[in-house]
Amino acid sequence: MKVAIQGELGAFSHEAAERMLPRCKVIPCARSVEVFDRVARGSVDAAVIPIENTLAGTVAEHADLLVAQDVFIVAEFRLRIIHNVIAAPGVKLSALKRVLSHPVALDQCRDFFRKHPQIEAVPFYDTAGSVKHVIANELRDAAGIAGTQAAREYRAKILKSGIEDDKQNFTRFFLIRKSLNRKSKSSGTKSRFDLNLPKNLIPRGANKTSIAFKVRNMPGALFKSLSVFALRDISLSKIESRPMRGKPWEYVFYVDFLRGDDEPARNALRHLGEVADFVKVLGIYPGA
After folding, report:
1. pLDDT tens, 106-163?
2. Does 188 share its domain with 279?
3. Pairing state of beta strands 157-160 and 84-87?
4. Which contiguous run of DSSP H or E holds residue 6?
5. What's the alpha-carbon Rg for the chain, to the nearest Å?
6. CATH number for position 56
7. Which domain covers residue 146, as residue numbers?
8. Among 12, 18, 127, 251, who pairs with 146 as Cys (CB 3.0-4.6 Å)?
């Protein structure tokens, strides 16, 4: 099974992909949009994408792409993020003058740099990419911050493990597949919402649903939208708004609720379709 990820081999997405699908072939992509395009075109079977970190929050670009592209979430996975200082074999921690990594990773390891003021934190495009760069260029005074997968991938040495400030650092990943069902669009003042879900992509035991919707600009619109879940005792585990690309001051709401493809959930979604401008079911899957 070919699975696309954003970033280099050895990235946390690579580790998550192999944990979710142990025998998969991981296809690294430079940009997130390439990952989604590959899934939509069918050149890969699936993709594993980070969607939310407990410290950094939602990955905004991936949230936007879930709405824009014809993909469907079929699984989620929570990965404990452990940052390590990784260098070429033979290099010692005392020899380091700079450590490279993704800006988010650097920000999550402030205590390390506070304890080692002689080491400069250098932003890099990717966690695993920083290790790849250090090893490929045979740097003896530099290291990268990445996961253990990167050390294995590039035959590098872990100089110090678990340097993240917060040990409750987790990232939630989605496994996405190609879907032919497009989001519903508004027509005039009435919303058209066709609850034609891709049954072949809904796994057995699915008990969680992710959706995106846009409300009309009128008093009580959000209250009415959320009431469709409250009336049916459906618990929301997340709600967040994001700006709509190309439409200033208009917003999309992202909601996760704790039901699978059952009658109460379907009734709630149909009801939501009556009060929202558009609704897109992003995925129905077993909760991690």
Report:
1. 999 999 999 999 999 999 999 999 999 999 999 999 999 999 999 999 999 999 999 9
2. yes
3. antiparallel
4. strand 2-6
5. 21
6. 3.40.190.10
7. 84-168
8. 127
Total Cβ atoms within 10 A of residue 53? 18
Q: What tens digit of pLDDT does each residue of 29-41 get? A: 999 999 999 999 9
Residues 250, 251, 252, 253: what is their CA dihedral angle, to the nearest 10 degrees? -150
Q: CA 181 to CA 166: how far, in whole Å?
A: 40
Backbone angles phi, psi at 77, to 5 degrees: -150, 140
For the record, the structure tokens of 21 come out as 């699908």
Query: What are the backbone dihedrals phi and psi of residue 108, each rounded to the nearest 5 degrees, phi first?
Result: -85, 0
Q: In this model, does residue 181 exceed pLDDT 70?
A: no
3 state SS of 80: strand
Residue 71 CA to residue 126 CA, distance in Å, equals 25
Task: Work out the number of other CB atoms within 10 angstroms of the CB of residue 274.
Answer: 13
Q: Are residues 283 and 206 in the same domain?
A: yes
117, exposed or middle or buried, with CB in 10 Å at 0-12, 13-18, 19+?
A: exposed
Q: Specify whether the CB–CB gap between 272 and 255 falls below 8 A.
A: no
* Residue after which a domain boundary falls, among 107, 133, 168: 168
Residues with catalytic function: 171, 173
Give, in order, the Cα–Cα distances in Å from 271 to each of 110, 274, 277: 47, 5, 12
- Both 28 and 126 in one domain: the answer is no
Whole-number Å distance between alpha carbons of 269 and 282? 12
pTM: 0.91
The model's confidence at residue 187, banded by pLDDT at 50, 70 and 90, is very low
Determine the distance from the C-alpha atom of residue 197 to the mean position of all C-alpha atoms in its chain, rounded to a whole number.
22
pLDDT of residue 194: 73
Q: ∠ at Cα 280 (4, 37), nearest 5°?
A: 25
> Residue 217 — very low, low, confident or very high, per pLDDT cuts 50/70/90?
confident
Q: What is the pLDDT of residues 252-270, one digit of tens each?
A: 999 999 999 999 999 999 9
